[in-house]
Amino acid sequence: MSHVKAGGTSKNNRDSPGQRLGVKLFGGQSVKVGQIIVRQVGMSKRPGKGTTLSRNFTIHAAKDGIVNMTSRKVRTFSGKSVRRTEVTVE
Questions:
Q1: Judging by DSSP bridges, how do beta strands 81-89 and 45-47 pair with one another?
Q2: At 81, is the secondary structure helix, strand, or coil?
Q3: pTM of this prediction?
Q4: Strands lying side by side in the sheet with 81-89
Q5: Residue 7 included in any domain
Q6: Tens of pLDDT along 11-49?
Q7: What residue numbers bound the domain in which 35 lies?
Q8: Which residues contact 80 (CB under 8 A, 6 or more apart)?
Q9: What CATH code is carried by the domain that includes residue 66?
Q10: Residue 30 CB contacts under 8 Å (≥ 6 apart), including other chains
Q11: Which of 15, 23, 78, 86 has CB atoms 3.0–4.6 Å from 48's, for a disulfide?
Q12: CA Rg, the chain, in Å?
């Protein structure tokens, strides 16, 4: 007869894969219509001219061109002014 006791179950063995967020095309790179420029949670980067914002805050190119990223001041809900990156396609 075996004398090895039964092993307990582990409770911390679940993990979800990463969401692959971040900037996919940087400033100066060429882009085509519909390509993803930024995948993000929330609006840390703002869409500008030549871009569209989808429901999950992904910024897509609305036209062919060159990606341009500039910093500008944006007023928040509380009235505070903060710097945010604006993504445009020219």
A1: parallel
A2: strand
A3: 0.80
A4: 30-31, 65-75, 81-89, 45-47
A5: no
A6: 888 889 999 999 999 999 999 999 999 999 999 999 999
A7: 22-89
A8: none
A9: 2.40.50.100
A10: 64, 65, 66, 67
A11: 86
A12: 22
